[in-house]
Amino acid sequence: MAASGGEGEVVEVRVRIAIVGSGPAGLSAAGRAAQLGISHVLLEKTDHLSDTIYKYQKGKHVMATPSSLVLRSDLDFEAGKREAILDIWDEQTASLKIDVRYNADVVKIEGEKGAFVLSLKGGDTIRAEAVILAIGTQGNPNLLRCGGAELPHVQYQLDDPTEYVDEHITVVGTGDAGIENALGLAADPAQGNVVTILNRGTEFARAKAANVKLLQEAEAAGRVIVRYETTPAEVRAGEFVLDTRDGQETIRCDRIIARTGSAPPRKFVEACGVEFTSPEREAFPVLSPVFETTRPGIHVIGALAGYPLIKHCMNQGYDVVEFLNGNATLKPADEPILAEKFAPLPGNRSVSEWLDLFGSKIDIFRDISALQLRELMLDSDVQAFTKGQAVFERNEPGSSLFAIGQGSVLVEVVKDNPSITVPIQEGSIFGEVGLISGRRRGATIRAAEDLIVVELSRAAALKLMATAPAAAKAVNRISIERQLLQIFGSGLSSADVAELVEGAEVEEARAGQIVLKEGDEGNDIFIIRRGSMIVEREIAGKPVFLSYLPAGSYVGEMAVIDGSRRSATVRAAIRSEVIRLPGEAFVRLLRKKPALLEKARTEMERRKEINSFIEGRKENFSSVVDMYSQTAQFLIENGIGEATDVLLIDETLCVGCDNCEKACADSHDGLSRLDREAGTTYAHLHVPTSCRHCEHPHCMADCPPNAIRRGIDGEVFIDDTCIGCGNCQRNCPYGVIRMDAVPPQKPSLLSWMFLGKGPGPGEPSKYWRKKNAEGTEQPKKAIKCDMCSGIDGGPSCVRACPTGAAIRVSPEAFLSVAKLAEED
After folding, report:
1. Which pLDDT tens digit goes with each residue over 749-766?
2. Does residue 447 lie in a domain region?
3. Distance between CA 279 and CA 707 in Å, rounded?
4. pLDDT band at 628 (very low <50, low <70, confident <90, very high)
5. Residues 410 and 433 in one domain
6. Same domain, 174 and 236
7. What would the DSSP string read from start to end of 760-811?
8. What is the pTM of this model?
9. Which domain covers residue 65, as residue numbers?
């Protein structure tokens, strides 16, 4: 019922339900209210429906996912072009006689359940018994945080990608919006745009699988440049400075489109009396199963509830009005899917009972809403194990994360003695090492009692951490605790390191960034969580390389323990991640644990020996120390900074026999994995083209069938599921992956020697391969060094070298290699 006066007079409207926001959720709620004959008003602050979809780029294909979820709404929705969907909704809004009020910007909500007053910009008021907030988050985008972000060529919206011609355009963010913008700008080659998209990491945690696939295809076709592990450093006129894993790089850039997500309009929502799940900017409101907030009578649905998918939003709009109309028996549309998922579990619980159990027991789920938990469960598996049953075995491949909903597990920490175990209790997680590093399982984990776990796929776990800050903090806290126990050992318990964990901070360090500076006071110590560090000292006015520190090492303890100033500078060799630990808490731990103190002092003495080695050569600095430092720097610049194993050739010993290449080919279906002559050389150390087996392999970042894995000895290998897409070859910065077809089987060595059959040892010539292919065209697959995994005796290239020139080098041996070069 509306009371209105003459022109310019304030209008007051009285309804049962006031719906704020006409996106898919609000529109669906209004449609249900209209169908049920409930007095309502749909308040839209613009002059058109569904502003978020209205602002999608022109011609955008809108997806209707998840396909398994039934649509429950009085308005139609199926996958199609943005324009077609909006036209249908306009028609159905009119036919359903939905009461829409445009240009109605709500500035304040007061009152209580049954008697709310909504104040609109301009002075009009709405009186309603209940309020549904469906306002979304797109009006509150996350802004770029770097110098120059305010320049005019930075924008946060793309309306029509066909408007831009012959521009170098960089899209920041690889969620669905960013990927779709990049694809739209690169769709027509005739436009002449050079399109680059920046991915902060190596995964696409926030994007739909279909969009990721389209982006990968565009990258493979050369239409879009995808840059991984890259973030904005500075915006300049016509240029964009980027932080990459190897340091800063400047690219041409005429336009930046930032699609780095958005956050709820928290100030307005909290002013309405609604509480959020946590203080984090991207947290969502606390909601009941019927979408009611902590302010009785105010309900939240759609993106503001943490459900950004259109089909979810529309179902919520339908459901919330049914709940308000007294339908207490209505179950969510995803109920049958979850019921089927939970059916094999013991206990005969309902879906809501299982969700309550998981939400209350599991730490990483406690600060997400019931709605978010339902969505997470759709992308996860639930499993039951009996006492003694293995959840997974040591060295099994796997990057999923497990959360214990009921029971506990035992971790077999010693490979050859399964009786030595460490417990993990109910509510905690395990498998986080595989999630973070991509490595194989580091231990066997068994059920200590009857067990129920939620297994989150890597994609689901990363999405949870990206959208729920509290969950990300919980995973980080647990991984830090376990990393501390692994590194320091000495019989420490969780209680011993609790103070360190509480004060720990995870920090990123771009390539070349100084983490510790020589001469500074030392208050904290640092664990290298990811990447690697270079340790240097200034001698005779020059920075001199002291050592290389791979992930898992720690630095800074010398100054903390003896109170001295930093004795060396530590900087990131590549883009890295460190854990900063409070020094005072570490000193208190050392006082309590003499064995740990002794271990730390032993490490200090080893590092002092390295310092003495350098100091003792001051007089002959130019010919000795400088050579040593330059050799070490050469190794770092050629991929040693992120390697776990690399092939080096001493050219003073190499006779050019090519036995290494021939042995490699003979061990791998006739295709060599290395090129001895290719690569770079410093002094007499040569780095041939062969895989470095990086700590965090770039080739793994974009493998559709997940064919690239890490073996038990750290080797990175490609299994038979490779589909030959070439993504790994494009992503490898060292050019060590080739795409080729496996040649026909060669005759035996004896047949070649005595009968002259076959091409002989090594890789067969292209002529022989073509002649013996018998008309069958073999598909190409990715081929790279696998460290001769499964072959007795280790790498064939090293075993076949008659002079000992070929050596495989691990991080611990890098310093020794540099010393040998200096001594020669």
Report:
1. 666 665 666 676 777 776
2. yes
3. 40
4. low
5. yes
6. yes
7. -SSSPPHHHHHHTSTT--PPPEEE---TTTT-TTS-HHHHH-SSS-EEEE-G
8. 0.67
9. 6-139+264-324
